[in-house]
Design goal:
By secondary structure, the chain is of the alpha/beta class. The chain has a single domain (about 25-295), classed as Alpha-Beta Barrel (TIM Barrel). The chain is built from 10 helices and 10 strands. The chain has helices at about 5-20, 40-45, 85-95, 115-130, 160-170, 190-195, 220-230, 255-270, 280-285, 290-295, and strands spanning about 25-30, 50-60, 70, 100-105, 110, 145-150, 175-180, 200-205, 240-245, 275-280. It has an 8-stranded parallel beta barrel with strand order 1-2-4-6-7-8-9-10. The two termini are about 20 Å apart.
């Protein structure tokens, strides 16, 4: 438990950071689903800390494969054991939280072999997670708000086709939001072409596990600022600063809350494309009390 003094200092830093950045308000996106020891989806949304929750991961799809969802210790989609999450998705949405299905991830078998393959995957996503109908919806009758592309395969082929197909299913009545989670080296090896075409509403750039473009407390914010300024020139509505929520959440790139508030946020908030921060993940967010998000949300 943080001391009263340290919490007070964090609050003062939050105020100072907001003033320095013109008090541009952002929001927090977080990944959920890869550790059964984290909160439930409904509990995560009930904190009031998050605007977006990425349910991770659909880790097998495309190239003729049967799509597979992995929610770690939460439930088993293969045995139809995750349909109870429909009520939790709806609970999140009733609180104004956008719930997206995250496809890809660091471990899995996925890829797109052709335009036709992209169309088939798009139809599967629509019928099983979005506004379509199917007898085998893994999350029951909940209609998710969109799809997050966390593509780490290195193959850039046809992700723009998949994003375009999904966007064509979007309507003013039921929009399909698209997000991308590229690595901070620019351009991203997998999603670069799709991002260049302006197909994503939100781009939460992973400023971790990439030392040349991430924050270093001793070296300063220069490398991160340079990469951030390049990313904020992409054709996307909002760009988010992606970070690990605890030191153990990534190999490198964790930023202490005090450094985030006093040093990093005033820099990234200068951009009109600033949307907030993205965190990996809710499990790691819960490793401290108060949580990482509790410490920084006032200044995000």
């Amino acid at each position: 438990m943080a001391s009263k003094l340290s919490l007070a200092m964090l609050l003062l830093l939050a105020v100072a950071g907001q003033l320095a950045a013109g008090a541009r308000a952002g929001s927090i996106a977080i990944y959920w689903g890869q550790n059964g020891n984290e909160d439930s989806l409904a509990e995560t949304c009930a904190t009031g800390n998050f605007k977006f929750v990425n349910v991770a991961f659909l880790y097998t799809f495309g190239m003729g494969q049967t799509p597979l969802l992995n929610l770690a210790g939460h439930c088993d989609p293969a045995s139809n054991g995750c349909t109870f999450l429909a009520a939790q998705v709806k609970s999140c949405q009733s609180r104004g939280v956008k719930v997206l299905l995250s496809i890809g991830g660091g471990v899995g078998s996925y890829g797109l072999s052709s335009v036709a393959d992209a169309k088939n995957v798009s139809r599967y996503l629509w019928d099983n997670y979005l506004g379509g109908k199917s007898t085998s919806r893994p999350l029951g009758d909940a209609v998710l708000d969109g799809v997050d592309f966390d593509i780490e395969s290195g193959n850039s082929a046809h992700w723009d086709d998949l994003a375009r197909e999904l966007k064509q299913l979007s309507t003013p009545y039921r929009p399909v939001y698209l997000a991308a989670a590229p690595q901070c080296p620019f351009p991203d090896a997998s999603l670069g072409p799709a991002i260049d075409k302006g197909l994503f509403d939100f781009v939460w750039v992973q400023f971790y596990n990439n030392p040349p473009c991430q924050f270093n407390a001793s070296a300063g914010v220069g490398n991160l600022e340079s990469a951030w300024n390049r990313w904020t020139r992409i054709p996307a509505k909002q760009v988010f600063l992606g970070l690990p929520a605890a030191p153990d959440a990534a190999g490198s790139g964790f930023i202490q809350p005090s450094d985030l508030i006093s040093t990093v946020l005033p820099v990234v908030k200068k951009s009109g494309k600033y949307g907030g921060i993205m965190l990996w993940s809710r499990f790691y967010d819960l490793q401290t009390d108060p949580t990482y998000t509790d410490k920084v949300k006032a200044s995000v």
